[in-house]
Amino acid sequence: MGFVSILTGSFSTPADDNPTVAVVEAAYRHHGLDARYLNCEVAPGDLADAVRGARAMGWAGFNCSLPHKVAVVEHLDALAPSAAVIGAVNCVVRDGDRWVGENTDGQGFLASLREVVNPAGRSVVVLGAGGAARAVAVEVALAGARSVTVVNRSAARGRELVDLLSSRTPVQAALVGWDSTFAVPADTDVLVNATSIGLAPDVDACPDLDLDTLHPGLVVADVVASPPRTALLRAAAERGATTLDGLGMLVNQAVLGIRLWTGLDADPAVMRQVLDDLAAGTAQPGPGGR
Ligand code: NDP
């Protein structure tokens, strides 16, 4: 028996409302893995020291959340292909002496999407052009989507994402300015809300869409995880569309991170249960007394 655990964790600020520690440690416990996940409050000016410290202590890897997803890149030795295209990293993995940056935001979304539809050859509409939208759009493009239409309020930010998709992936990409109610084109297979509209506390906010253009046969996904049942998903379900919530994306990111750090294929149901309990306010106290 040894007394040194596998060390993993997260660097972000603010860190206190990030539930990933509860999810990942539940999986470690469930599978009897001697590993820990430490949720660390790290200010931007301390990021370089935190990464050096993790290396010195032999961590297997760590997540990077806001505001470090782009800044961490300069402290790494290599980037996985999709992280290189996205230009942001949320999961760092030790490979021998090297730190390799991955982006599991988009991969987590893709894993969730694949449970209901294979994006290859599909027509995808992405609402938003921020960090989450970038990760989602690049991953579905690299997964062989036929087209990605970016719908964004800020034209400059939308254009930047469309140019990235056109220059770095094989997808047919287009931009739609979002200055009036958006009607989802009839040939759309997957609609993704990758904006923060609907995020708590603004739980009744819904993206400005013609909701009557949502229909059975369409997959409507939301990256917003809190609350999981957003106004958009409620409206989509009422119109017969298949819905995917942001908790699936969150769980799949944890599955991917754990696999990259430890080689373990963790049971997503255990982690989903933790998130459902947290959402229902019935979670057992975890590390740190919560
Ligand atoms: P960013 O700030 O980078 O981007 C926000 C995007 O939302 C921008 O495109 C912005 O448009 C758009 N937006 C915000 N408010 C409005 C509005 N009122 N009307 C129209 N567009 C709007 O945020 P992130 O991409 O980092 O995060 C977006 C969401 O994704 C958050 O809710 C976050 O919690 C969630 N997320 C979920 C994950 C999961 O695992 N489930 C993982 C990562 C993120 P504009 O460019 O015009 O400002």
Helix and strand arrangement:
Layout: E1 6-12, H1 20-30, E2 35-41, H2 47-56, E3 61-64, E4 78-79, H3 81-86, E5 91-95, E6 98-102, H4 104-114, E7 123-127, H5 131-142, E8 147-152, H6 155-168, E9 172-177, E10 190-193, E11 219-222, H7 231-238, E12 242-244, H8 246-262, H9 268-280
Parallel strand pairs: 1-2, 1-3, 4-6, 7-8, 7-10, 8-9, 10-11, 11-12
Antiparallel strand pairs: 3-5, 5-6
Helix pairs in contact: 1-9, 4-5, 4-8, 8-9
The structure holds NADPH dihydro-nicotinamide-adenine-dinucleotide phosphate.
NADPH dihydro-nicotinamide-adenine-dinucleotide phosphate (NDP) binds next to helix 4, helix 5 and helix 8.
Written account of the structure:
This protein has 290 residues and is of the alpha/beta class. The chain has two domains: 6-104 and 248-280, Rossmann fold; 107-246, NAD(P)-binding Rossmann-like Domain (Rossmann fold, 3-Layer(aba) Sandwich). The chain is 35% helix and 20% strand. The chain has nine helices and twelve strands. A six-stranded mixed sheet has the order 2-1-3-5-6-4, sandwiched between helices. β1 (6-12), α1 (20-30) and β2 form a beta-alpha-beta unit. The longest helix has 17 residues, at 246-262. The model has no long low-confidence stretch (mean pLDDT 94). The structure holds NADPH dihydro-nicotinamide-adenine-dinucleotide phosphate. NADPH dihydro-nicotinamide-adenine-dinucleotide phosphate (NDP) binds next to α4, α5 and α8.
